[in-house]
Write a structure and sequence with these properties.
Strand 15, helix 1 and strand 16 form a beta-alpha-beta unit. With about 200 residues, the chain is an all-beta fold. The protein is about 5% helix and about 35% strand.
């Protein structure tokens, strides 16, 4: 590299087989991605959980976070999650019985992101627990439930973003997914087989 030049480019996504690609089946036509609350300029990794409206041909990211360090309830408002979750300040998180609102996010640590919650989550969360974006701070109902997966990575841009979706895939390796699927998503996806 020549002196005086600085390259600040996003590296290409590592091509890793997250499912048996021979079993993958795409949905017909492109879908318009709802980019509200998503960071412009970032990339959505392939096999991101997507809630698709099959009639309107629209797609919304099912935001999920994975707990990176055990969270113990009892006046605790700091939750550590795995990086690249697309969580945002103001969103509600839940597990189906408990929940909380995210006040702020600290992304300074290279190993995990730290969420500051508005109140204690109300439950002890083990490492690897997947939480969904909820409709309210009670955390009982997911904002959206995935019924598809993103076929290939997509750049989040201002304006219209068209994406291709998968409607079926087998031999999915959950450990290789950049964004996890919640149990409620998996129950809503009969044509997806997770190796669990």
């Amino acid at each position: 590299m020549a002196a005086g030049f600085t390259y600040n480019l996003t590296p290409e996504e590592v091509k890793e087989e997250r499912y048996d690609v021979e079993t993958g089946r795409r949905r017909r036509g492109p879908y318009k991605l709802d980019t509200a609350n998503l960071p412009v300029g970032e990339y959505l990794p392939s096999f991101t959980p997507i809630a698709a409206d099959l009639k309107k041909k629209t797609a919304q990211v099912a935001i999920r976070v994975e707990v990176a360090e055990k969270f113990t309830t009892g006046s605790n408002t700091t939750l550590k999650i795995k990086k690249k979750s697309f969580a945002y300040a103001g969103m509600h998180l839940g597990n189906g019985s408990n929940g909380a609102t995210v006040n702020s996010i600290d992304k300074s640590d290279p190993n995990y992101d730290t969420l500051t919650l508005a109140a204690d989550f109300g439950a002890t969360l083990e490492v690897g627990t997947v939480l969904f974006e909820a409709t309210a701070a009670t955390g009982k109902t997911p904002k959206v439930t995935a019924n598809s997966a993103l076929y290939e990575r997509a750049k989040i841009e201002n304006g219209i973003v068209l994406v291709a979706l998968l409607m079926r895939a087998f031999e999915i390796e959950p450990a290789k997914l950049a964004i996890p699927f919640h149990a409620k998503d998996k129950a809503n996806m009969p044509y997806f087989q997770f190796n669990e």
